[in-house]
Amino acid sequence: MEESTKKSFPELLKNQKKVIKIGIVAVIALIVVIIIAVAAGGNKNKAQNTVSQTVTTTAPATTEVQTNKATGTVSVVTTAAAVENASSGVTVNKEDAIPEIKLGQTISTENFDFTLNKVELSYRVEPDYKPSYYHYYDAPENEIYVYVNASIKNKKKTSVECDTIYTATVDYNDGYTYDGFHIADDYDGDFTYANITDIDPLQTLGVHSLISCPEEVESSDAPLFVTIKIRGGEEYKYTIR
Length: 241
What we know:
- Helix content is 22%, strand content 40%.
- It is α+β, with helices and mostly antiparallel strands and 241 residues long.
- It folds into three domains: 7-58; 62-94, no CATH class; 99-239, Immunoglobulin-like, CATH 2.60.40.
- The strands form six sheets. Strands 5-6-9-16-13-14 form a six-stranded antiparallel beta sheet.
- The longest helix is centred in the first third of the chain and has 49 residues, at 9-57.
- The protein is elongated and about 120 Å long.
């Protein structure tokens, strides 16, 4: 007599419960996998946003290629201590932003031709061409003059007061600054006051600046330069040492 393969109702119910439990576990596992994937994607997006923000807010930088001659290694160094001209791609260091002017050089603007004749340190400043009677300037006690000698041509159609054409400032030891006053050449070769002297149209006249500084400016080896700002033009720098 063959054994019946039919299962009783309780056994079928028991098997069905097992199937349901397995299905629930599978669904829960799938949900956990989805949650983990979503969380990972969110962190990735957050990281990407952070990187994007960092790149966006980084200050303009200049890139310099450096070569180690001993090892032959080439490295690229990027710094933010520069001003970049985005249109031309040219980088100009802030320290070098003021153009240099040399002795004998003439700077032309719309209204003036400015020629720098000489710059010197002196305890007494006298005219180059002395008449029988002339004026001179002695530096105050324990001080010395930085004497800026310049010639100005007036290209305007009206007269211009001499002491309004340019300014000169001495910079000593990277930050000690000194301003002075102007004098002008009289038409007989003597010195005269710049604030009462005009340059007529198309005429050239000597207009000079006397800047009183401490005596140590002469004996020190610290950096010393003069910045000259021409009215209606740029600022220029003359390096004494």
